[in-house]
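[step 3/7] fold_predict: job queued, chain A
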Amino acid sequence: MIAALGLAALAVGLATQSDTPASSPQGSGSSVPSELTPLPGPVASGGNALPLFAYYYIWFSPNSWRRAKLDYPLAGDYSSGDPAIVKQQIESAKAAGIQGFIVSWKDTAQNDSRLQLVMRIAAQEKFKLAMIYQGLDFQRKPLPASEVGKDFQTFETKYAPNPVFYKIGGKALTIWSGTWEFSAAAVRSVTSPVTGRLLVLNTQKSVSAYDQIASYTDGDAYYWSSVNPQTDAGYPKKLQQMAAAVHAHHGYWIAPFAPGFDAELVGGTGTVPRDDGRTLRTEYAAAVGSSPDMLGLISWNEFSENSYVEPSKKYGYFYLDAVAQLRGATVPAGLQDSDSSAQSGSQDSPWPDAFLLLGCVLICGSTAGFAAAIRTARRKP
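[step 4/7] structure written:
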């Protein structure tokens, strides 16, 4: 059963479901290293009361898997336009306690077709969606603000009214990736025409940058996939400072967490080791500790940056199962990899990390739902 949502989820209007997810066929050829040891059990926490959405990408074709990949999905070299794949992905995510996908989108013929496919299957599965707009091109340069504005208006009229999209106060949740490359005036020109039906969260990376455009957006969804919790001891405080700035402007804060990161094959520098699941658990604890309105898992299927939790040939169902345990959910047997069970011979015990997470939750989790409800009551109309 999908973990029931608490006060925070109700406060922001998420229509939760408690259906038993259907099982998906398990991929073949999976291999999980013996040193990977799952969590000892579900961590009962206030963090479970927070809505959890995973960033989801619809750009894959069979050719995508032939370049810049260190690992591959258990489902094979799939196309994002395959209905069976989309259905399996949503069922697997639901089983792990994920309530929705934040779908990457721009207004192109292929993206529109694939978004419509995801919308149709998500509606059938009673699964929610949000949208993240990619405001930068492949060279990481900003698109013309006029193009961004036109695409947001298209989304507002063509897609936002659909009930599959997660709404707060009747407005569909959207995120604008790359806002740090746009001036405040450009941001205002994009968001002002769509304030009637859309919430547009920015993706600023610092409090000072956020403050510059806070008046023209509805909060912040910091896409911080490359932080290394082992070497950046100050990053939980930064998340808390970002959250405080967002809430001071009566905005919404989506706190990020990821299982690891490696974008060297696509021009990135530095890597964040997965560390047998410890990175995921530590970042989850820090995200919950920042008093978020929602948790943003980076990611479902970003295989080029190696931040995915989608079942893969290298890790099997280990990371999806870890998410499920953090959420107090249970992945049905038909969705689990046979090698993802606890390995009695492992030399690395997960217990210290579980205690770390539990300690953080006991301090901050008990107030998260109530605080979110209070903040929601004084948000922008």
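[step 5/7] annotate
Residues 92 and 335 are 7 Å apart (CA to CA).
The chain has ten helices and eleven strands.
exit 0
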